[in-house]
Amino acid sequence: MADTGTLECITEHERILQEIESTDTACVGPTLRSIYDDQPNAHKRFMEKLDARIRNHDREIEKMCNFHHQGFVDAITELLKVRTDAEKLMGQVTDTNRRLQEAGRDVTAQTQEVICCRIQQRNMATTVEKLQLCIPVLEMYSKLKEQLESKRYYAALKTMEQLEKVYIPRVGQYRFCQIMAENLPRLREEIKEISMSDLKDFLESIRKHSDKVGEAAMRQAQLHRNFNSVVVKQASSGHFAKPVYSLNGRTHTHNGLKMEDDAGEDDEVDDEVLTVQDLVDFSPVYRCLHIYTVLGDRETFENYYRKQRKKQARLVLQPQANMHETVEGYRRYFNQIVGFFVVEDHILHATYGLVTRAFTDELWNMALSKIIAVLRTHSSYCEDPDLVLELKNLIVIFADTLQDYGFPVNRLFDLLFEVRDQYNETLLKKWALVFREIFELDNYSPIPVETEEEYRLVVSRFPFHDAEIEKQDFPKKLPMSQSVPQIYTQVKEFIYASLKFSESLHRSSTEIDDMLRKSTNLLLTRTLSCCLQNLIKKPHIGLTELVQIIINTTHLEQACRYLEEFITNITNVSPETVHTTRLYGLSTFKDARHAAEGEIYTKLNQKIDEFIQLADYEWGMAESDGRASGYLMDLINFLRSTFQVFTHLPNNNNDHASMSGKVAQTACMSACKHLSTSLMQMLLDSELKQVSMGAIQQFNLDVIQCELFASSEPVPGFQGDTLQLAFIDLRQLLDLFMVWDWSTYLADYGQPTSKYLRVNPATALALLEKMKDSSKKNNIFSQFRKNDRDKQKLIETVVKQLRSLVNGMSS
């Protein structure tokens, strides 16, 4: 059985070896795995079998190599011999090829030259033959082009006729002749296009020169305007009769004679007239119009010309973005527009139908709307009143120039009223800066006058008259500060500046007077009023400065009637005229004065609040210090020194005295009321939880000092104890707690004759609860003493009664 198993194992190993030798290496894994899955130690016997098989193959390989070794050596030897011969052969072939290429290069080049020459000879012969037939046609066509370029259109038309009937039929088989024949019917259109190109050049030329044409026309209008103003002045003085002259500047006659104001200016006008006409050559327009008329297409030419001029009008009306920055930008803009319409006016009168009056009117209406819109927009950007004034002058000259050519310009003069409003706005902004600077540099103290000359100088700048001050000896002081005459002078300067805009507007004196008064009212009620209000609100303006501001506004208010007389003298319009506008300076200065008074009260109260914040009461103290608090004494001293400012005001003017007395009384009453309210709020502060009787006594000492201050008449003019009534609420409240007179308070509550009529139950309750909490904290052992227990019960009883009163009031 063992032999049988061994034999089977050997057979299996043979099969596996054959399978390994005959199969791919990727499939060897399962085969090798089967060796280990068989009998134990089978792999050892397989390895022995494998080694034997390897040795067997090695022997067969060695036999085969020994058998073929000699043949291999012989083949290698033969191959080495052949390689040497092959290298020699390769060199010979390469050398032969090189010599062959060099020898054939010259032959190839010569052959190509011969071929090219023969082709050229054949082509030249053919070309000469054909050109002999085509040259006459080309010459005629070239002649046609020359005629077109030289603008000999009639000769060009004759040449086209010869080409069509004689020359083209001879060589009609050629393509270029066919194209030429096809193009000839359209050459007549080309003649129109050539003439149209001349028109385009003309349009381009007038576009470039329109500003120069406009400049010349506006300069001429300016000269005529100046001339007319001189003639009017001379006529008004009796040197001439009423002059007769045309508005377009073309004729100036007086009694049938030409008037010459200045030979140089007259020559300049003549030169400008010639220059305007010589700047533009109108012959292309005439020639093109004639060609289109002959060809029967005049309507096309007219439509094209008008369309292009409309486009140019739109371009001319487009301003530069920075036009509003300089007057030159506006001048260039106006020059271009004037030049455009001067050219159109010439075309209208010289071409008999190319443009019509209806067409020019349409262009002008379109341009006028655009001009007005542009001027509205750009004038709104102007911040300099001088620039706005120059713009106004340009608009006037612009309108006069175009009016001379028959264009309606009423809307431009209407626009000037809008520009006038813009001019006034720029003036107001400029004068706002002037007023601010005046206020900043003012020292807010009366003007010192050392000599008669100084006094006269001030009076010449400001209408100040006071008999008592005039009687005083020098040196003396005028009640107002230095800003008053400066403000008055600047208002007059503003009126002069506003008047400049009204010149040459062809308006009546009444209208000019109305414009001046309205602009002056704006200066007073808006600009100056705003500057005064801002000045009053500035933190660095103290009480002394505010008092001086009140005096200043009083003098400015009194000077308003002199401003009205000043305007009347300028315009010669009586103030009694029905529609004369009045100046509103009185209300402006009254409002400023009221604002200054209110600011005095506000600043005084703020200062009181600053002192109150320094209060440092010891609310739990057992007894008072026996003297008033330091902060309160400082506050009273401050109030005394402050109200002395009012008593130091000049008393030589009854108005000043009454004004200062009223302000001082109101300020003093306001300060006392505010102080009383602040002290009451301090005592009833919700954050204050406990108050002792000693603190009440100390607080009472401070209130007594306040009452003494009120009774000392810090400001004269109060009747009786009017000022002391400001502290009546505090006095009655403190008396109630100091005397501890609750029975009287509760019994008389609600009676008009009550001793504690001004004590509110809620106020008394709030303070009593603070004292009750203080008593509980400070008298922990007081419950063992009968008097303290009785007092505590009394407090609780009073608290209950006060609560019932408070609840009754709320219900």
TrEMBL record:
> What UniProt keywords are attached to this protein's entry?
Exocytosis, Transport
Give any Gene Ontology cellular component.
exocyst
Q: Which domain of life is it from?
A: Eukaryota
Q: Name one Pfam family in it.
A: EXOC6_Sec15_N
Any one GO BP annotation for this protein: vesicle tethering involved in exocytosis
Q: Which residues form the Exocyst complex component EXOC6/Sec15 N-terminal domain?
A: 49-218
Q: Which residues form the Exocyst complex subunit EXOC6/Sec15 C-terminal domain?
A: 412-770
PANTHER family xrefs: EXOCYST COMPLEX COMPONENT 6 (PTHR12702:SF2), SEC15 (PTHR12702)
The entry assigns this protein to a family as follows:
Belongs to the SEC15 family.
Q: What does this protein do?
A: Component of the exocyst complex involved in the docking of exocytic vesicles with fusion sites on the plasma membrane.
Q: What is this protein called?
A: Exocyst complex component
What is the species of this protein? Answer: Cynoglossus semilaevis (Tongue sole)
Q: What is the lineage of its organism?
A: Eukaryota, Metazoa, Chordata, Craniata, Vertebrata
